[in-house]
Each structure stands twice: as structure tokens, then as C-alpha cells.
Amino acid sequence: MPEDLTAALAALRPLLLDPDRLVRAVAAGRRRAGSPSVARAELRPVDLKSGRHLQAVTTDGRTPTTRNLGYEEAGELVDALLAEPFGSWHVETLDETVQLRVTKKGAAQVHRAATSRRDVTGRGHDRVKDRLLDPGDPLFSALGADADKRRQVDAFLRQLKAGLADVTAPTGDPLRVVDLGCGNAYLTFAAHRWLAAGPLGAGSGVRTVGVDVRPDMVARNTELAARLDLAGLGFEVGTIVAANPLDGQAPDLVLALHACDTATDEALARAVRWGAPLVLAAPCCHHDVQRQIAENRAQGHPAPEPYTALVRHPILRERFADVLTDTLRALLLRMLGYRVDVVEFVDSKHTPRNAMIRAVRTGSAPSPEGLEHYRSLTADWRVTPALARLLDDEVAKALTA
């Protein structure tokens, strides 16, 4: 049942400020009535030398900002975040999980579920582990990476390592890497650092170029690369569609990490047309297919039976559209000569956008079964994925093969 929003948010406050009970809280999305000043906020207790603090990580969608506040001063920050027009709150404590979603009418839908966590890990320093990149590497300090970021880096590098196992190492020339829509590029830096250490063999070398539309981000990344003396790593301003980061040379590895909406499709399309041997894409928000499903409903074309229940509720429609989008991306890449795995590259407690498309070029012909799956899904749901529009000639050829 809907609840009064002000009262529901007030009930979250003591949970957020309980240093012994809170595990993690995430605020995200926006209400119909307004937009919050940050895209996402995450709160959790951390143990520092001076005692337990409340850590707040906020992001504008690209650049994260981390603050550690003593609990005597954390109340003001929590009140400010509760006053922001976020669309949802997800709060995990030792004994329950609370999910609050703001409805279109401005009420609160609250769901509570009992949990049984006996202890909480990750509040202090990292346990010693065999990591692909030394947690003490000066790179992490320069990037302002906390323990969670270091774990994300390690998880990402393991997916990169798995993909490289099926890619022939370059002979003589350096490995060419492009990160399309690199943003703050902390994974770009980590990939370059690890690849430069020679996992493909001594002397193989690596040249990495990050591309982003924001001049300020490119300038910041360029300055940081120079300060860290990372030879072979560069950044340039440009769009994904028009990028020519390697002076006409095709890359061996294409990265597209949390590029928003159809920017992921633009990056995948560039990778396909380059014939990139390895592609790692971690999609972010998905709106294109979701928008098409909503337009179909508005035009009197409901979802195919018996699947109308999948898209009746907005939150389920959004989640289903995410799954359908990535399913169609994987099918298209298989149709165009790639072996594709869709994997969870980092635990969902670090980010809900934790799916990664890992594609290795094999050049194999599309399978009849894959073609039929693609035809059926697009016809039944009346959608044309952005990747298919960007690769219309290649897709048409595959479908008539």
C-alpha cells in the first residue's frame, strides 16, 4: 500500500545513521517532479584509524566524490540526501532490507524483508588477496580509488584476462586498445597498467587511447597519465561515431564501460566494423528498447501473449527491457561473427549495472537457430535494436545468408 513519502523517508533516517546496523544504502533515479543534484548516492559505515565513519559516495554519472564523515556530523548530509528527489532508496541492514520507491503520484511504496547477516565484511582494509594489480600501486592513490574500486578493477581485469586467452598476441607491434566513452577512465588506466606489464609476453607493448566528448575529462585524464608516467596511454576529445583514435589502424581490443544508453551500441558497432578481436562492454542505462515497447503500447500494440504481465508495471518493464536489449546485442554480435558471453563482472553490491558483454571474434557464420531467435524476438516485441540500425547493412546480409 502507498505510504506518505515524508513519513517513509523519515523512517529511513535512523537506519542510515546507525553505525552498527547499517550495511549499505543506495539512492538513485529521479521522481517525476524533479531531478536530484547527483545521479546516485551510496552510504555505508567504514572503519578508519580515527574510528567508524559514514562514507558517502556520490556521482554525477561520471565522476564519483567520496566523503568520510564522523557520525556527529553525518546527520546533516543524510538529511540533505533524503531531501533530494531520488526515485528510490535501497537500504540494507544487519537484520532487514528496505526498498522504497516513489510512485508517479509522489507516494512511497515500501517493501521490507528480514535478513540474517551475522557480520559485515569490507568495513576495514582489504584482506590480502592475489590481485592482478597490486592494491598498493600508486595508480589507485592517484585515481582516489577506495577498496570497492580496487575490487572492481580486479574483477574487470580478470574478465579482460579471460578474453585475451582467446586472442593471438601481437607480433612486433604493440597491442592497440581503444576505450570509447572513457569518462573518468579509472578502468582504462588499470587496463593499460596491467597490459603494459606484459601478460601477452615480454616486449609485446601496448598503446591505449581513451575517447570522450568532454574536454575537461580528457584534459584531466591526460594530465594524470603524464603524472603517472604511463607511456603509450593517451586521451582525445571526440564522439564514439566519429572517433579515429589510432590514425586509421584497427584496434585489437575495444572497451565500452558504462557508456549510457545507445552509446554502448555505437561502441559495439565501431568494434564490429573495425573487426576488433576482443570487445568488453559494460552497458549502463537502457532506454531505446524500453521506449519502443512503451510506444507500441500507446499505439495499441501490447506485448505478445502471454507476456503482457512482464511489462504491465513500469519497474518490471524497465528491467525486462534491460534484459531484452542485452539479449539482442548478444544475438547480433553472434550473427556477425563473434563468440559472446554475458557475465557478471563485479558483485551487484558495488553497482547494479554489473553485466558485461565479452565478445571474441571468430568469423564464424551465423547459426540458423540464432537467426530465428533474433527474428522472433524483434517481430514479437515490435522492436528494432539500436545496434541493428547502426549495422543495418551487416545485419541485413547476415539475415539473408
Overview of this protein structure:
By secondary structure, the chain is of the alpha/beta class. It has two domains: 110 residues, no CATH class; 262 residues, 3-Layer(aba) Sandwich (Rossmann fold), CATH 3.40.50. It is 36% helix and 23% strand. The protein has twelve helices and 14 strands. The strands form two sheets. A seven-stranded antiparallel sheet has the order 4-3-2-1-5-6-7, with helices on one face. The chain has a seven-stranded mixed sheet with strand order 10-9-8-11-12-14-13, sandwiched between helices. Helix 4 crosses helix 5 and helix 9 runs antiparallel to helix 10. The longest helix is centred in the C-terminal third of the chain and has 22 residues. It is globular, with a radius of gyration of 23 Å. 35% of the residues are buried.
Number of helices: 12
Spatial extent as radius of gyration: 23 Å
What is the domain tally? 2
Which structural class matches the secondary elements?
A: alpha/beta
Mean pLDDT, to the nearest integer, reads 87
List the uncertain runs. none
Query: And the CATH topology of the largest domain?
Result: Rossmann fold
Largest sheet: 7 strands, antiparallel
Features:
alpha/beta; seven-stranded antiparallel β-sheet; 401 residues; 12 helices; 23% strand; seven-stranded mixed β-sheet; 2 domains; Rossmann fold
Secondary structure: elements and pairs:
Blueprint: H1 5-16, E1 22-28, E2 40-48, E3 51-59, E4 64-70, H2 71-83, E5 88-93, E6 96-102, E7 108-114, H3 138-143, H4 147-164, E8 175-180, H5 186-196, E9 206-212, H6 215-227, E10 233-237, E11 253-257, H7 263-274, E12 278-282, H8 288-298, H9 314-335, E13 338-344, E14 355-361, H10 368-381, H11 386-390, H12 392-399
Parallel strand pairs: 8-9, 8-11, 9-10, 11-12
Antiparallel strand pairs: 1-2, 1-5, 2-3, 3-4, 5-6, 6-7, 12-14, 13-14
Helix pairs in contact: 1-2, 4-5, 8-9, 9-10
